[in-house]
């Protein structure tokens, strides 16, 4: 399914939807992906973990529409694709401590200094992500931009996250990690990906 934050669809308009009604038992482990892109991660993750419910938010309607169509074609009832701005949608859709995991893969680095305020991982968003996670919940962050990674690890740890790899350090890919569409290209070419696996205390 796909709903836009501007549509009249109830699930995008209502405050704190009934996720058990939407996903059934899978809602017991509710997860969020911010920036689904071409959907490589969301589609593979939903298939690999049918007992988990994944809500994927993508701001570009064209991409969201394609991913939603693929999810329907592949019969993935545990994946919901929403089109909109995660900064606006996430606090409307999920209560505090509701999410088991949040996946943020290759967010736009917004290179120019005057655009830094548009970056996803800023102080306000870091605090929001921490609040949405359940105790022990995982923030799975990946980027191909070293400077962005270095800034993100400082900001996220300062917000209260515990770094699985140790303070200021980056993680290796776990054996069961599912790559995004973009990450598959990097794995093929050997380009480095900086990973953070952070937990809510």
From TrEMBL:
Concerning InterPro entries, the annotation shows: SAM-dependent_MTases_sf, tRNA_(Gua-N-7)_MeTrfase_Trmb, tRNA_methyltr_TrmB_bact
Answer yes or no on keyword Signal: no
Kindly list the positions annotated as binding substrate: 112, 144
**Binding-site list for S-adenosyl-L-methionine:** 33, 58, 85, 108
- Name the enzyme group at the top EC level: transferase
The source's domain of life comes to Bacteria
Which reaction(s) does the protein catalyse, per the Swiss-Prot or TrEMBL entry? guanosine(46) in tRNA + S-adenosyl-L-methionine = N(7)-methylguanosine(46) in tRNA + S-adenosyl-L-homocysteine
- Enzyme Commission (EC) number: 2.1.1.33
Signal peptide range equals: none
Tell me the keywords, alphabetical order: Methyltransferase, S-adenosyl-L-methionine, Transferase, tRNA processing
Q: Name one Pfam family in it.
A: Methyltransf_4
Name its pathway. tRNA modification; N(7)-methylguanine-tRNA biosynthesis
Which family is this protein grouped under? Answer: Belongs to the class I-like SAM-binding methyltransferase superfamily. TrmB family.
General function of this protein = Catalyzes the formation of N(7)-methylguanine at position 46 (m7G46) in tRNA.
Known PANTHER family for this protein? 3-DEOXY-D-MANNO-OCTULOSONIC-ACID TRANSFERASE/TRNA GUANINE-N 7 - -METHYLTRANSFERASE, PENTACOTRIPEPTIDE-REPEAT REGION OF PRORP DOMAIN-CONTAINING PROTEIN
- What is the protein name stated in its UniProt record? tRNA (guanine-N(7)-)-methyltransferase
Q: Supply the gene name.
A: trmB
């Amino acid at each position: 399914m796909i709903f836009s934050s501007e549509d009249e669809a109830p699930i995008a308009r209502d405050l704190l939807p009934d996720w058990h009604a939407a996903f059934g038992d899978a809602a017991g482990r509710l997860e969020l992906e911010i920036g689904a892109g071409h959907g490589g991660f969301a589609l593979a993750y939903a298939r690999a973990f049918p007992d988990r419910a994944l809500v994927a938010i993508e701001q570009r309607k064209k991409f969201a529409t394609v991913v939603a169509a693929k999810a329907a074609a592949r019969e993935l009832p545990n994946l919901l694709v929403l089109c909109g701005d995660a900064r606006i949608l996430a606090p409307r859709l999920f209560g505090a401590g509701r999410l088991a995991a949040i996946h943020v893969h290759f967010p736009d680095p917004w290179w120019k200094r005057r655009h830094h305020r548009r970056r996803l991982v800023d102080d306000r968003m870091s605090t929001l992500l921490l609040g949405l996670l359940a105790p022990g919940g995982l923030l799975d962050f990946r980027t191909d931009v070293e400077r962005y990674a270095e800034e993100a690890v400082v900001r996220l740890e300062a917000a209260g996250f515990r770094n699985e790899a140790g303070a200021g350090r980056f993680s290796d890919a776990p054996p069961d990690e599912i790559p995004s569409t973009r990450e598959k290209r990097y794995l093929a070419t050997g380009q480095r990906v900086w990973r953070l696996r952070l937990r809510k205390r």
